Amino acid sequence: MADRRNRCNQVLLLAYQSFGLVFGDLSISPLYVYKCTFYGGLRHHQTQDTIFGAFSLIFWTITLLSLVKYMVFVLSADDNGEGGIFALYALLCRHARFSLLPNQQAADEEISTYYGSGDATRNLPSSAFKSLIERNKRSKTALLILVLVGTSMVITIGVLTPAISVSSSIDGLVAKTSLNHSTVVMIACALLVGLFVLQHRGTNKVAFLFAPIMILWLLSIATVGVYNIVTWNPSVYKALSPYYIYVFFRDTGVDGWLSLGGILLCITGTEAIFAELGQFTATSIRFAFCCFVYPCLVLQYMGQAAFLSKNFSALPTSFYDSIPGLACMTLAFVTTWLMPLIINFVWNRNIVFSVLFILFFGTIELVFFASALAKIPKGGWITLLLSLFFTCITYVWHYGSRKKYLCDQHNKVPMKSILSLGPSLGIIKVPGMGLIYTELASGVPATFTHFLTNLPAFYQVVVFVCCKTVPIPYVPQKERYLIGRIGPKTYRMYRCIIRAGYKDVNKDGDDFEDELVMSIAEFIQLESEGYGGSNTDRSIDGRLAVVKASNKFGTRLSRSISEANIAGSSRSQTTVTNSKSPVLLRLRAEYEQELPRLSMRRMFQFRPMDTKFRQPQVKEELFDLVNAKDAEVAYIVGHGHVKAKRNSVFVKRLVVNVAYSFLRKNCRSPAVMLNIPHICLIKVGMNYYL
């Protein structure tokens, strides 16, 4: 009983917060829906049946698209609680091989959040339709472009909607006061600045701040709606019948069809309900919308219809040409096209249900979409231009990143050639640990051999680190690390794959080196006990094992403050032999004084626990690991530059050499993202020609 009460309280709390974050655009749409609907030729059809028909269209649009489509179907297609178009694409990529980046591993499917609880679709045979899309690269590319277009529409709406919503909210000041339009614009700008300043306070505080405002607003417009119904035309309830939609189009013809762009604005912000799902829960959003938002909006629109049916001259004539009536419809249309794939591939329903879904909702939205196209010459082109710009940026980034990954994969070094060099790899081994960052989840990157070719010396322990994004929102901390061995045990070469979800924040902070060492130590022990990786000493690229590194201090290794720190001496006094020259040691000491965080990284040292090992070489390997960590840790980051060949077509050279190169140079470098100190960083450049 107590648990049930707590769950109810949690739902009510989240529902309350959702008013301040989710339903803002949808709740203020009554400010401009009717004036936009009656902007064009529909102004010449000012009859009661026309007003009732417009309200009937608004009512059934909100009911079918916002209530039925989103509340019933779309909110059920969440990705571990996350919503939005990208979440739908991630769901599809997990349940079918739709991803164009070939970095999937079987071990990723063992993540606890990869499949939903009770999901048995992973063991079902693949359908012919699914196999057709998986084998056809063009189909997967088309699906990706569809997702990018939808994502670009979200960005476009985010650019245009705040200004339009605020301007519409205070537009009444022009008619009710003596303020001119320029003053209203200045007030709108001030409000926008204030709203964006509040963003840094966090979603939780912003939601609590605006929730009572939105609740008061909805109650107010509902009350006004009831007053108008009772005062002006109580018979407006008849317009709930879809018969008035037929009368509307019969009387207005083409003018009525063109007015659908204004009707469409009544669902502005509906997609945001699904996009913001990760901040709340589907239950809380459904409760808030069905029990409060939906009734208040219906009463307000009905009240406006009752008032306008007796006061035709009060129809506003102002219209904002830049209202995004096209961006919203395109975004809803993309969701409608993705949902049948979810129904068939993720929910494992018969394809008939997918066809029925797209026929029903797709037909309705297609009519609205065709009407919205008429707004392109009147300002809708801004929406298309912005969306095209964002789509090009995202696709160029994906195209260049994929080509770079394929080049890395094509140029990776065969393991046999590495192993044929022997445990020393034909180079001079120096004390320390080298962390080689690569995007490859298997094989040896070409940057490693390129480095050895120019400088035939390396650290005694080599770890290939791959930071990889998997198509789930979050990866549990205890399942992030995949550890494996490369070559025989005497080579002291390991592989570490750090998995993160597409909404995970980089958590590899100052404790990363310690967590990595503990994870490898745990793997070594598990391997000796017959769990996880391969037991054969001659394994080429051993199996990877999930290592739960958190809270493992004291299990395999003991961690304590190093003797050098206790004595207050410099790092050069450590008991482990350091290969650096006195000049480099002095420079390092000066750098550590300027960057205390680096000193904190080296503050602790590890030692194997004084326990009995079944195999003596296990303790020896653990000692080699901790000694290498105490001596030096260096980060080797490969910089692969992709360039188009001189004889390539102009478009390819423009995309690769100009657009993608510009994006690469202006994004955060791997060293910054991985929080790597400059004194420990070694960059290796590689050029790839396409």
Automatic annotation (TrEMBL):
Q: Where in the cell is it found?
A: Cell membrane
Transmembrane stretches in the record are 12-32, 52-72, 142-166, 178-198, 207-230, 256-275, 287-307, 319-339, 351-373, 379-397
Where does the record place the K+ potassium transporter integral membrane domain? 14-328
Q: Which UniProt keywords apply?
A: Ion transport, Membrane, Potassium, Potassium transport, Transmembrane, Transmembrane helix, Transport
For membrane topology, the record states: Multi-pass membrane protein
Residues forming the K+ potassium transporter C-terminal domain are 431-689
The source's superkingdom equals: Eukaryota
In which family does this protein belong, per the annotation?
Answer: Belongs to the HAK/KUP transporter (TC 2.A.72.3) family.
In its UniProt entry, what is this protein called? Answer: Potassium transporter
